[in-house]
Amino acid sequence: xxxYDRHIVPRxxxxxxxxxxxxxxxxxxxxxxxxxxxxxxxxAGHNLPYYDTAKVSKVIxxxxxxxxxxxxxxxxxxxxxxxxxxxxxxxxxxxDDHSVDSVLLTYALCTIPNPQAALAEMHRxxxxxxxxxxxxxxxxxxxxxxxxxxxxxPIWRPLFGGCNINRDIPQLIGAAGFDIxxxxxxxxxxTPKIASFNVWGSAxxx
Length: 206
Hints:
The chain is of the alpha/beta class. It has a single domain, classed as 3-Layer(aba) Sandwich (Rossmann fold). Helix content is 34%, strand content 28%. The protein has helices spanning 3-16, 20-29, 66-71, 73-77, 115-125, 143-159, 169-175; strands at 35-40, 56-63, 82-87, 100-106, 126-137, 178-187, 197-205. Strands 3-2-1-4-5-7-6 form a 7-stranded mixed β-sheet.
């Protein structure tokens, strides 16, 4: 991993993940998580202020980027529940089977090299009756926008730490053995359309 990936990308991603439209999305979905939560791709901890402290006992954040974790320390100190960080890959989550009540996935599935393997791991660690709560930017339903996503993605991906703007997120979640209980979608305001189509909701193990 070179200087750009170690030092520039975490700052770019932290900035992009903290814009007003994205924070509004976090505000919608993060409070749905409960109990012991696995947060995949915790990054700089942007979700921490939005957890419902009456419902959450512990958050375990998994992320391959320890630089981003250093940016999270102020947010970690501000929450009353335990936060544990584990440096590692979403494709090999360092947790036991059926050990968490919720998995929170926000703006992370786009960057994971093998999303199918990562979703299989989320499926594995969830307790029976547990829930996957997600919010992701995704492949747009409009043909003109999705064509531009496909054209730009090869340039976009290396600039933004492996982020793919054209993944069909609901299809990936469903193919991993999750039943999507509710799904909402929209283009975020004040954001270029190629990167602003968002899908969010929750899913349970089929």
